[in-house]
Specification:
about 170 residues; alpha+beta; Arc Repressor Mutant, subunit A; 3 domains; 3-stranded antiparallel beta sheet; about 15% strand
């Protein structure tokens, strides 16, 4: 409800900004070189531009911090991060306040889309539905592991055959 009234107010400010711009341009075009009318037109145009820019920026902030938008942006971030994010990562990537990030993450937990995980002293949020399975190449003989991006089918250490397997956590 608060977002709806803010969106309405922002729309009204944009409407006023457009009116001020139009009247300012009319004043400038019809000034006939009179300094007082030119000044009035310039002031109207300047105030119209300032009000429009302010309203558009505020509307952008409101839509970027809407709960549905924040939730979707967090899910996109989790997808790019392999299914795990921390609150600090969300704050940094989405540029939203810490309280909004934590509220959104807890909302996703309550919806069953995420779960709390602790690694060392850090709390992070795992998204099991979008977690990616990491793969690696492991030597069948000596057990050495190598990234998939490295070329070759033989182990550089012992010459054994490399097999593609899920990476150990």
């Amino acid at each position: 409800m608060q977002n709806r009234s803010a969106l309405y107010a922002g729309g009204c400010v944009i409407g006023v900004a457009i009116i001020l711009l139009l009247f300012g341009l009319i004043f400038l075009l019809g000034s006939q070189g009179k300094p007082a009318i030119i000044l009035t037109g310039v002031i109207m145009v300047a105030v119209g531009i300032a009000a429009g820019v302010f309203a558009i920026r505020k509307l952008g902030q409101i839509t970027n911090t809407a709960p549905d938008t924040v939730d979707q942006r967090i899910l996109n971030l989790a997808t790019m991060s392999g299914g795990e994010v921390t609150a600090a990562e969300v704050v940094g990537a989405l540029m939203i306040p810490v309280a909004d990030a934590q509220r959104a993450l807890e909302r996703l937990v309550s919806q069953g889309l995420a779960e709390h995980k602790v690694r060392g002293d850090d709390l992070y949020y795992a998204f099991p539905g979008i977690a990616t399975v990491r793969k690696t190449k492991r030597c069948a003989y000596c057990g050495a592991e190598y990234p998939l991006r490295e070329p070759g089918h033989k182990c550089p250490a012992c010459g054994g055959i490399l097999e593609v397997v899920e990476a150990k956590e």
